[in-house]
Every structure is written in C-alpha cells, then in structure tokens.
Give the backbone structure.
Amino acid sequence: VQLQASGGGLVQAGGSLRLSCAASGRTFGAYAMGWFRQAPGKEREFVAAITWSGSSTYYADSVKGRFTISRDNTKNTVYLQMNSLKSEDTAVYYCAAGNGLGHTREADFGSWGQGTQVTVSS
C-alpha cells in the first residue's frame, strides 16, 4: 500500500490542525491505520490508531482528549484531528497501515507514508 500524508504546517500553541493520509494499492478497509510522530533528536513514537472498521481507537497518553483519529473507508483516507496543540507536539507525523498484529507498536504496521511536518509555536 502507498500512503500519502498531508495537512501539516505551522500553528500557534492552542491551535488546531487536521492531518490526512490517503491510501492506495490494496484494500484499505481491511487494515488498522495509525499515526506516529518523530521529534528532532527523539525516537519515533505512537500517537493514535484505529481498527479497520473504526469501532476502536487507541491513543498515546500525551494526546488523549486533544487528538482524534478517524477514517473514511469510502475515500481510503485516515484523519488525525489535533486540537489544543502544544509546542511538544512539534514533530514529523507519519501515517502507517497495519499488518494484522496489534495497534500501538511500530512492529504492528507494515507500510509507512513519507511524513508531514507539524510545527507548533509557543
């Protein structure tokens, strides 16, 4: 599967952004989807994931209550709505397609997009 993330940009602290990830190449609706992020000098970390049906979602503690993951299987797209952004949310955000295992580890995802930069100014 090919993944194309978009929607990143520069936003002030407290603001909002919505990331999108368009998928092509295989049956999008059959797999979980996730978002990860990597800040400068840090390892990539889990942000959020959603099951193939959208019935279950998973979030890192650091974004619970502020970020919302959703998907539209008719458009082969997964979204990440980010509200109340903080400077520590600054990172490159990657979307990923699940490989049928779990939902929160990098090893649970087999295909990755190119990343989109999110910068939050304080």
Remarks:
- The chain has no helices and eleven strands.
- The first strand starts at residue 2 and ends at 6.
- The chain has a mean pLDDT of 95.
- The two ends are 36 Å apart (CA to CA).
